[in-house]
Design brief:
The protein has 269 residues and is of the alpha+beta class. It folds into two domains: 2-165, Secreted effector protein pipB2 fold (2-Layer Sandwich); 174-268. 25% of the residues lie in helices and 47% in strands. The chain is built from four helices and 16 strands. A nine-stranded antiparallel beta sheet has the order 11-10-9-8-12-13-14-15-16. The longest helix is centred in the first third of the chain and has 21 residues, at 67-87. It starts with a strand and ends with a helix. Mean pLDDT is 77; it is low at 5-21 and 89-98.
């Protein structure tokens, strides 16, 4: 892995005839030596930092607010891959029709109003993680052999971006969802595997999980604060979801208490 930065960490701009060209704040190159190299370029414009990722002609853009969420999804994919390898029977004859990739795991992520897909795929050349931006259909593929290095490089870029310009609070929230299989044990001794949709929210330094579940006492929504220092769990019966939603709407419509405080202080002065 190699790293480059602009002089003194400052943004470098090169002006050319007919317009200006924005140069990279920092670069990290991974791969090479028999594998196609991947370039991670940290850039900055008037709205803040963002990451441009190049894999040959393919390219992919990640906003600053999405660095940590993307890293979390890579960790999930690596965990899924570990489970797949542990439970699979070795088979050297991978049979894919016309090299069509087999999907091993899939998830989605919404960042600043844009939807991204993350797919763990396998074809005749091996296993790789594919990142797709839904609107533009731009994408890149990262082979499993480079995935941990890619994740670490993304974390390094996140630290560099935070030093230059912190993520604004209104853009600091991001969410994504994935399909989570759950075993349900029935009273007659049968076991049924249900595929539930698990939502994850990253906001204010917290990682929150929302997942519908079912037990002998009924259906409920489990909300988990997975922040290491907290790890709180709240179970809400499904019959009360509409009332909870109404409460959330009332609170949101009332506005941020901090803004109310500023208005009150302004009137007082």
């Amino acid at each position: 892995m190699s790293t480059e930065s602009g002089k003194g960490g400052a943004l470098v701009e090169k002006r050319a005839a007919g317009g200006g060209k924005l140069m990279d704040v920092s670069r990290i190159v991974i791969g090479g030596r028999g594998e196609k190299s991947i370039l991670l370029a940290l850039r900055e414009n008037k709205d803040g930092c963002y990451l441009k990722i190049f894999n040959g002609p393919a390219k992919f853009t990640v906003p600053h607010s999405g660095f940590s969420s993307l890293n979390a999804m890579i960790d999930v994919a690596l965990g899924k891959l570990k489970n797949i390898r542990a439970s699979s029977v070795p088979n050297n004859k991978v049979n894919h029709v016309k090299d069509r990739a087999k999907r091993l795991y899939s998830s989605s992520l919404i960042l600043e109003g844009r939807k991204f897909y993350i797919d763990l795929l396998e074809n005749q050349r091996g296993i790789y993680l594919k990142f797709v931006q839904a609107a533009s259909r731009t994408w890149i593929g990262v082979p499993v052999s480079l995935l941990k290095q890619f994740r670490d490089s993304l974390g390094e870029m996140e630290l560099k971006a935070a030093k230059r310009r912190p993520v604004p609070e209104d853009k600091g929230a991001s969410r994504f969802k994935r399909i989570q299989p759950r075993e349900v044990h029935l009273s007659n001794g049968q076991t049924v595997v249900m595929k539930t949709v698990q939502h994850e929210l990253h906001v204010g330094g917290k990682r929150l999980l929302f997942e519908p579940r079912i037990s002998h006492s009924g259906s409920y929504l489990r909300i988990m604060d997975c922040t290491p220092a907290t790890k709180t769990v709240i179970n809400i019966p499904f019959v009360g979801i509409s009332q909870v939603q109404a409460i959330f709407n009332d609170i949101a419509n009332a506005g941020d208490p901090f803004n109310q405080l500023k208005t009150a202080l302004t009137k007082k002065n």
